[in-house]
């Protein structure tokens, strides 16, 4: 048994779980999600927080209503919201449960979870269970991206904007199977960049590399990279763009001797979907972790859920 047996399988399954999630966006399950015009907060911890960031930008930019994203521990109780969406794979994370308990009876809440046999459903007003995307690995991959696919498809259905599921799934299958970029396993530092909703993806890419491979990483909004962080770029670094790159940034990075990757500019007419490109980052994180002899399914100092006991 390899140290990444579970996460390898879970990464590879994402095209299928995304398709299942998109189907839920136009069925009865979608009734629990925010309505057009509602003022919404989306909360989570770790990976879930970064998916919340992506969803918040997508929803607000689609004209569906003000949407904010917060770490569950940092929710601003002085603000008024019509609905709070709590994203938690385990349904047991302390900060999420405490927030749901405090909001009960005050603000309508919906918990998006993988395991129904947890405390979250009793605390939330509505629950969406994505049990088909649950995971055995501590390192979270498919649950997060599957939840974001549900959100993306729901935003598209509400706003009438394009959501080409077939292309997204095809891009994901390519990212599952194609070789990683030449020489990338020999790099020592990585910076992930995003714009708009893909800033959340960049943040998640950095977290995944840290968790799975103990690799030095950073993440930034792409336009901020010029404001200091580019000083670290060198022949041993990779700057990886998720989403549309700012004009001239690639040339600036290449001038440092660093490697520039823009997976969404893959030569196709529409480019590669940024969420699909995140799969390549997941695979890289696992490959680097395996190369270091790490137990990627169970990284050091981490657990499936952060449950804080009272002292």
Question: Can you characterise this structure?
Answer:
The structure is a single chain. Strand 3, helix 4 and strand 4 form a beta-alpha-beta unit. By secondary structure, this protein is an alpha/beta fold. Helix content is 39%, strand content 15%. Strands 2-1-3-4-5 form a 5-stranded parallel beta sheet, with helices on both faces. It has a 4-stranded parallel beta sheet with strand order 7-6-8-9, sandwiched between helices. The protein folds into 2 domains: 158 residues, Glucose-6-phosphate isomerase like protein, domain 1 (Rossmann fold, 3-Layer(aba) Sandwich); 126 residues, Glucose-6-phosphate isomerase like protein, domain 1 (Rossmann fold), CATH 3.40.50.10490. It is globular. Helix 2 runs parallel beside helix 6, helix 3 runs parallel beside helix 6 and helix 8 packs parallel to helix 10.
* Biggest beta-sheet profile: 5 strands, parallel
Overall mean pLDDT score?
A: 93
Quantity of strands, as a count:
9
CATH superfamily of the largest domain: Glucose-6-phosphate isomerase like protein, domain 1
The helix/strand class is: alpha/beta
Q: Classify the helix fraction into a percent range.
A: 25-40%
CATH class of the largest domain: Alpha Beta
- Tell me, what's the shape? globular
CATH domain fold name of the largest domain: Rossmann fold
Using only C-alpha atoms, the radius of gyration works out to: 19 Å
Between the first and last Cα atoms, what is the distance in angstroms?
38 Å
- Strand fraction equals 15-25%
């Amino acid at each position: 048994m390899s140290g990444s047996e579970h996460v390898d399988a879970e990464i590879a399954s994402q095209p299928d779980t995304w398709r299942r999630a998109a189907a839920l966006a136009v069925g009865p399950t979608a009734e629990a999600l925010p309505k057009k015009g509602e003022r919404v907060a989306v909360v989570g911890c770790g990976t879930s927080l970064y998916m919340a960031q992506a969803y918040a930008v997508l929803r607000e930019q689609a004209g569906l209503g003000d949407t904010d994203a917060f770490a569950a521990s940092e929710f601003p109780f002085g603000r008024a919201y019509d609905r709070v969406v709590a994203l938690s794979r385990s349904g047991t994370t302390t900060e999420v449960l405490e927030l749901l308990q405090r909001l009960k009876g005050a603000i309508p809440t919906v918990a998006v979870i993988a395991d129904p046999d947890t405390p979250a459903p009793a605390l939330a007003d509505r629950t969406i269970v994505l049990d088909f995307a649950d995971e055995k690995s501590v390192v979270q991959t498919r649950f997060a991206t599957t939840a974001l696919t549900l959100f993306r498809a729901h935003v598209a259905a509400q706003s009438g904007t394009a959501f080409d599921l077939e292309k997204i799934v095809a891009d994901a299958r390519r990212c599952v199977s194609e070789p990683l970029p030449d020489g990338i396993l020999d790099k020592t530092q990585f910076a992930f960049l995003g714009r708009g909703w893909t800033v959340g993806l960049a943040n998640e890419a950095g977290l995944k590399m840290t968790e799975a491979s103990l690799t030095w990483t950073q993440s930034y909004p792409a336009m901020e990279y010029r404001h200091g962080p580019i000083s670290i770029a060198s022949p041993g670094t990779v700057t990886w763009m998720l989403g549309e790159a700012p004009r001239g940034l690639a040339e600036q990075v290449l001038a440092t001797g660093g490697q520039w990757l823009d997976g969404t500019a893959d030569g196709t007419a529409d480019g590669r979907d940024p969420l699909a490109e995140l799969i390549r980052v997941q695979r890289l994180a696992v490959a680097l972790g395996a190369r270091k002899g790490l137990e990627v399914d169970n990284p050091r100092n981490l657990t499936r859920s952060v449950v804080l006991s009272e002292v």
